[in-house]
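Reminder: ligand-aware prediction takes two inputs, not one.
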Amino acid sequence: MSIELTFTDEQKALRETVARFAKDEIAPVAHEMDEKEEFPTKTVAKMKEMGFFGVPIPEEYGGLGLGKVGYCIMLEEIGKVDASHIAILAAHTSLGTSPLLYYGTPEQKQKYLTPAAKGERIMAFSLTEPVSGSDSGGLITEAKEEGDYWVINGDKIYVTNGVEAGQVVVMAANDVKKGSHGGITAFLVEKGTKGFRVGREEKKMGLHGTSTAELIFENCAVPKANVIGEVGQGFKVAMTALDVGRVSLGAGSLGGMQGALDLALEYSKNRMQFDQPIVWYQAIQFKLADIAMHILALRNMVYQAAAYQDRMGHDVSKWGRTERKQKSRDSAIIKCLASEWASKAITDSLQIHGGIGYIRGTPIERAYRDARISEIFEGTNEIQRLIIAGDLIERGWVNE
Ligand SMILES: Cc1cc2nc3c(=O)[nH]c(=O)nc-3n(C[C@H](O)[C@H](O)[C@H](O)COP(=O)(O)OP(=O)(O)OC[C@H]3O[C@@H](n4cnc5c(N)ncnc54)[C@H](O)[C@@H]3O)c2cc1C
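Here is what comes back for the chain with flavin-adenine dinucleotide:
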């Protein structure tokens, strides 16, 4: 990996714009959104207008063309104030649009990626099922070839943006027995397709601004033209999207850690106990220092990995084995560390707040509930450790 880490003027301008938007538009509505458990329709509409739903997508497909580095800048800044907005953007961009960007045909890019990048259609990604979570290759939603269509039957769960999405990337088994080795295919399914409906919406501990929904497929006929990538190669399509998602989760967590640090600093400088601000107690200072150390380390890791993905480009046929392996290993490392460091930073910040940190309505209390899921979704941290260890066993420690 290159050790250089600099931002262009365009990237710096994006950071300023997003930071202002997060402070002026998202922060004031985050508490009400959380309490009411409502999708933030108004801020999402503004984010669409500002191009936030297509930051890393090339301009020829309606995006801003600011790459993964630009995308991470946006998520880092929004992550400072709210995690629900991050999850909405990331489920759409990392998981929804990446399959089209990397594996879509020119027609699919025109028809589905462009409206997604412009924010005209929100996207979702549907891999998980009641019987297959971590063992995603074991999914049983079936796709059967019938004439010009694939007919999908099955039940998918926990789909972020499932309620709002106008189009969903759905992984289904063209051959259950083959599983991840040639038995899974990725499909683009449009809302309104006969036989496709949204089922139960989950109540959650956090991320109250996002929908997490069941998707039901009953004899849902999807045109063959909507197969993303090759038949049987859907697992690869899903894992490519998750590599993007895991780095973007790192960027959102990085923002969350900075938000937690800012709150802890402000509170501890103002809270008096035993005749002085608590920030002067070493026990508090050590917590602040630990958060800062993790922020610096994570910041470097996230932007190096994002720049690496940008350098690899969007033509998967040109990717070498070493690049692919490094991308997946590094995404897993970042996802794992970022989620655990963010959980620790937010827990420590809450502790610095004392009792008020436990009271509903404080930003740190919301952040605490929101952060927990990052150790679970996009592949649990146990699964990330298996990916990292598997690569170490196969290739040892190699770094380009
Ligand atoms: C809020 C939310 C949003 C989500 N959004 C999406 C989405 O948009 N799209 C989507 O497809 N999915 C989504 N998911 C699903 C999420 O990715 C899964 O919940 C996750 O991958 C874990 O699967 P599981 O819940 O079935 O747990 P399981 O796989 O049953 O795991 C249970 C426990 O066993 C551990 N475990 C399992 N296998 C092993 C092993 N081999 N070695 C060691 N430990 C193991 C796990 O790490 C975990 O601790 C979402 C989930 C939530 C809660």
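Strands lie at 123-126, 142-146, 149-160, 167-173, 184-190, 196-201, 212-223, 227-228, 272-273, 276-277. Residues 234-395 form a domain with the Butyryl-CoA Dehydrogenase, subunit A; domain 3 fold (CATH 1.20.140.10). We will return to this case in the review session.
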